[in-house]
Amino acid sequence: MEEQATNRVNFRMGGFLFGGTHQLTIRRGFSQARGVQPVKAYLRTGPNRVRIIAGRYRHRRLVFPPTEPPIRPTPDRVRETLFNWLQGVVTGARCLDLFAGSGALGFEALSRGANEVQFVDSHPVIAGYLREMLVQFQVEGSSVCTADAFTYLEGGIGRFDLIFLDPPFRDQRHALLLDALNRGGHLNPHALVFLEWHRDRSLKPLALPAGWIFRRQGHCGQVAFALAGPPALSGTG
User: Which candidate among 2, 3, 131, 174 keeps its CA 20 to 30 Å from the CA of 23?
Assistant: First the structure.
């Protein structure tokens, strides 16, 4: 049985509120707005859910809205390895989550004692979702900026101790972004940058700008990842 109705509806999906006037199809006891996933489907979709691994928010889940292209959160195994590498570094750190997406990296850092995380994403829906998550997690001192990564790095954003640099899958502009971070004076003397990129069949290493070095490297399936240090760290052991 099916009937049509036009109405103003609000969908709260995983903490994110969608609203507006929609043409609804009422079928078998639930409603579906055209162009918007059903609430139940959204909440149950695996790729739209990511859990925080450790710290004060341990086991809490981030449920993020569907987008096109879809968000690909950093896999649990990669995040666990990364934050094992960062033991003793995250506590009290000022962090930048430059292609924030689901916010998994930034919220994991906050969970493990980071003092501040600046979340940056160019998609306004994702930026709104991240602001809602900061409210839900009762996070103070962190914020969200809706901006292109390169535009954001041109501003007076201060210096960071830890940067998460995970651009869209197959986007290989890492070297340009590292240059922008360094030239803009956005790195503290002992800053570290987490890099994540697509590991293709050629297994070619990611190119770094002159003076940058890999501190740690790993891979998980098609995902390659590393911690890199800027030129100021090149002479240290």
Answer: 131
Q: Are residues 38 and 89 in the same domain?
A: no
Q: What is the pLDDT of residue 11?
A: 36
Tokens of 121: 């994403």
Indicate whether 83 and 32 sit together in one domain: no
Evaluate whether residue 55 is within a structural domain: no
**Same domain membership, residue 175 and residue 111:** yes
Assign 3-state DSSP to the chain and report helix, strand, coil percentages, each to 5: 25, 35, 40
Write the CB contacts of 39 (distance below 8 Å, at least 6 apart in sequence). Answer: 11, 12, 13, 30
Spatial distance between the Cα atoms of 146 and 163, rounded to a whole number of angstroms: 17
**Residue 47 pLDDT:** 59
Structural domain boundaries, residue 88: 67-233
Q: Please tell me whether residues 76 and 10 are part of one structural domain.
A: no
What would the pLDDT profile of 68-84 be if each residue is shown by its tens digit? Answer: 888 888 989 999 999 99
Looking at residue 208, its amino acid is L
Model-level pTM greater than 0.70?
yes
From residue 234, give the alpha-carbon distance in Å to each of 68, 175, 178, 189, 215.
39, 16, 15, 11, 10
Considering the domain architecture, whether residues 25 and 83 belong to the same structural domain is answered as no
Specify the pairing of strand 187-198 against strand 223-229.
Answer: antiparallel
Residues 72 and 133 in one domain: yes
Q: Which residues of 176-215 are buried (b: 16+ CB within 10 A; e: fewer)?
A: ebbbbbbeeebbeeebbbbbbbebeeeeeebebbeebeee
CA nearest to 86, candidates 198, 163, 177, 158: 163
User: What's the pLDDT tens digit per position in 133-167?
Assistant: 999 999 999 999 999 999 999 999 999 999 999 88
